[in-house]
Each structure stands twice: as C-alpha cells, then as structure tokens.
C-alpha cells in the first residue's frame, strides 16, 4: 500500500503521526512524507533564513531515513503557505508523485499556525484534483481518489478524535524521528515556546491511549475526511 503524509513544517509528521507511519513501514508499505514549508524562520539563533532551511532539510531527510520514507521538499517559505493557483498545482503534483491509497494531513480547522490550516486545506483540494486530466502538472493524473485522515493538531483545539491507532510498539521510532529534528529540539521549542515538546508529544499519545481503556500505552488519533467521495466503503480498514 502507498501512504502519503502532507505536513506544513519539517517536524509536523513526527509530532502528529510518525508512530502510525512507522507501523505502515514495518509491514512493508511505501511511505512518502511531503513538507510544504522549508522552516526557514524556525530559529531564534541563526541570522540567515537560507541556513535555517538547509538545516531543516537535512533533519527532515534524516527522520525519513529512519523508516525508509521518501521525502518531498516543497520549499515554500515558512509561514507563507497561501491558497494560490501555484500552490494548488504544487500540492496536486505531490499527490500525483506519491499516488497514495491513503493520505494523512494537518487539521484544517483553526490550528494555532495558519500553515497547518492551509496545508490541510490544500491537501483536501489536491486529493480530488489530482485525478483531473485537464489540470496539468509535472506528473500524470492519479487513477483514484485516496482516503484521507486528519491528524490531531498541537494542543487538540477544535478536534474530536474518531480513530485511535496503537503506537506503543513504534513509540521509540516516533521519538527517534522527532529527535532527528535537532534544531527544533534543542533550540526552537525552548527559545520560542519554553516547553519540552518531546514530553508534550509523549504525554499527548499517553492521554489518548488512556481514552481507549485498553492496554495500549500510546495512541495517535485521527479524523476521517468524510466529504464526498470518501474513497472506500470501510476507510478505517486502511489504518495499520
């Protein structure tokens, strides 16, 4: 099976759904991680945006390598994902490159960061428009509309989970992928927000595992993109 995650920033995948992607990868599925922005303002310590972007790109590739995922680096300036013809075409081509059976993306309903919102909305548009032959991009149209799930946003605002994936066995992999983003771990999260993001990530997954009332220690949670057409009669069966 082919799986695509489209996120806004180089560490979004790790926080939101890396445990789930690791489960797909462990069973041999094809994983693509697409990042819309280059993270080039995500530092309080570097002076040149191009230097920050280069660091973030290397870190994103290192994280992908842990599970053997392909990286698509869209290279939009951080905090400047906007709904335009060019941006829509970029997202459509990402879906055409990955040709997924199932997609994951950021929640498109008023997260704290507009890049998350608009990236989720662009992914929503692209999943259908990628099949339209008269929209021309570098890669040919897809043959089917993939099922898509939204990830729980940072802090959980405006989000009620529908599906829970037990990531207890892949939590170490999720953490390793997050730790690959060294500039965010050791600089940005502390300098900007004064929080331990790794602890927040683990506590978040533990909280949702507790909601299941099962033996799971960690869970990631999702909502189905349930607008017509969903793409499968039983979409939950595409979750690992």
Termini separation (Å)? 11 Å
Question: How many runs of DSSP E, i.e. beta strands?
Answer: 7
Helix/strand-derived category reads alpha/beta
Determine the number of helices (DSSP H or I, runs of at least 4 residues): 7
CATH architecture: 3-Layer(aba) Sandwich
What is the CATH third-level topology name? Rossmann fold
The general outline is globular
How much of the polypeptide forms β-strand, as a percent range? Answer: 15-25%
Spatial order of the strands forming the largest sheet? 3-2-1-4-5-7-6
Query: Poorly predicted ranges (pLDDT <50, ≥5 residues)?
Result: none
Please write the CATH class name.
Answer: Alpha Beta
Please characterize this protein's 3D structure:
It contains seven helices and seven strands, in the order E-H-E-H-E-H-E-H-E-E-H-H-H-E. The protein is an alpha/beta fold and 240 residues long. The protein has a single domain, classed as Rossmann fold (3-Layer(aba) Sandwich). Strands 3-2-1-4-5-7-6 form a seven-stranded mixed beta sheet, sandwiched between helices. The protein starts with a strand and ends in a 16-residue tail after the last strand.
Short summary of the structure?
This protein is of the alpha/beta class and 240 residues long. 42% of the residues lie in helices and 17% in strands. It is built from 7 helices and 7 strands; from the N terminus they run βαβαβαβαββαααβ.
Write the layout of secondary structure elements.
Blueprint (H helix, E strand, L loop, with lengths): L1 E6 L4 H15 L3 E8 L11 H19 L2 E7 L8 H14 L3 E5 L7 H16 L17 E5 L11 E4 L4 H9 L2 H12 L3 H16 L6 E6 L16
Parallel strand pairs: 1-2, 1-4, 2-3, 4-5
Antiparallel strand pairs: 5-7, 6-7
Helix pairs in contact: 1-5, 2-5, 3-4
């Amino acid at each position: 099976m082919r799986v695509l995650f489209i996120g806004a920033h180089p560490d979004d995948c790790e926080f939101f759904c890396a445990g789930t992607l690791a489960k797909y990868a462990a069973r041999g599925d094809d994983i693509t991680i697409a990042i819309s922005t280059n993270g080039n303002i995500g530092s309080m310590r570097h002076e040149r945006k191009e230097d920050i972007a280069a660091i973030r790109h290397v870190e994103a590739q290192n994280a992908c390598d842990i599970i053997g995922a392909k990286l698509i680096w869209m290279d939009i300036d951080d905090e400047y994902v906007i709904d335009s013809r060019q941006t829509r075409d970029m997202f459509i081509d990402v879906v055409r490159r990955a040709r997924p059976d199932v997609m994951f993306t950021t929640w498109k309903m008023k997260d704290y960061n507009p890049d998350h919102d608009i990236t989720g909305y662009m992914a929503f548009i692209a999943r259908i428009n990628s099949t339209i032959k008269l929209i021309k991009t570098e890669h040919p149209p897809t043959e089917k509309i993939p099922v898509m799930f939204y990830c729980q946003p940072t802090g959980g605002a405006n989000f009620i989970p529908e599906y829970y994936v037990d990531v207890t066995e892949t939590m170490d992999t999720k953490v390793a992928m997050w730790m690959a983003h060294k500039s965010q771990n050791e600089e940005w999260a502390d300098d900007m927000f004064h929080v331990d993001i790794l602890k927040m990530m683990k506590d978040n997954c533990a909280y949702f595992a507790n909601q299941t009332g099962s033996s799971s220690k960690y869970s990631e949670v999702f909502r189905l993109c349930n607008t017509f057409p969903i793409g499968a009669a039983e979409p939950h069966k595409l979750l690992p």
